[in-house]
Amino acid sequence: MAIKKVWLDESEDECISCGNCESICPEVFEVPDKMVVKTGVDFSQYEDSIKEAIDSCPTNVIKAE
After folding, report:
1. What are the residue ranges spanned by the domains of the chain?
2. Which of 25, 11, 13, 12 has the alpha carbon at shortest distance from 54?
3. Which of 19, 26, 58, 63 is most exposed, with minimal Cβ within 10 Å?
4. What is the CA 8 to chain-centroid distance, rounded?
5. 6-64: what fold?
6. How far apart are CA 60 and CA 7, in angstroms?
7. Where are the extended beta strands (E) located within 1-65?
8. Which of 9, 8, 10, 6 shows the shortest CA–CA distance to 27?
9. CA atoms of 14 and 26, how far apart (whole Å)
10. Three-state SS for 3?
């Protein structure tokens, strides 16, 4: 199933701005102060990298569906 949505969920923990997501998938993630998901990105092109970024997030705040 293709990824249609990626977001930052800080309901249980906060982004610590470590930059893992940006270094793994700079086409989708950016970390100025906190992680942001770039707009206008076709997530289906970067599914493997998005999943790797989610798995690498130390605070588990990156979500996708």
Report:
1. 6-64
2. 25
3. 58
4. 7
5. Alpha-Beta Plaits (3.30.70)
6. 11
7. 6-8, 29-30, 36-37, 62-64
8. 6
9. 20
10. coil
Residue 7's alpha-carbon distances to 45, 55, 60, 64, in angstroms, are: 17, 14, 11, 6
Q: Which of 1, 2, 19 is nearest to 62 (CA)?
A: 19
Measured CA to CA, the distance from residue 59 to residue 3 in angstroms comes to 21
pTM, two decimals, is 0.92
At residue 32, what is the residue type?
Answer: P
Q: Check if the beta carbon of residue 24 is closer than 8 Å to that of residue 6.
A: no
Q: Over the stretch 22-55, which tens digit does the pLDDT of each residue have?
A: 999 999 999 998 899 999 999 999 999 999 999 9
Distance CA 29, CA 53 (A): 9
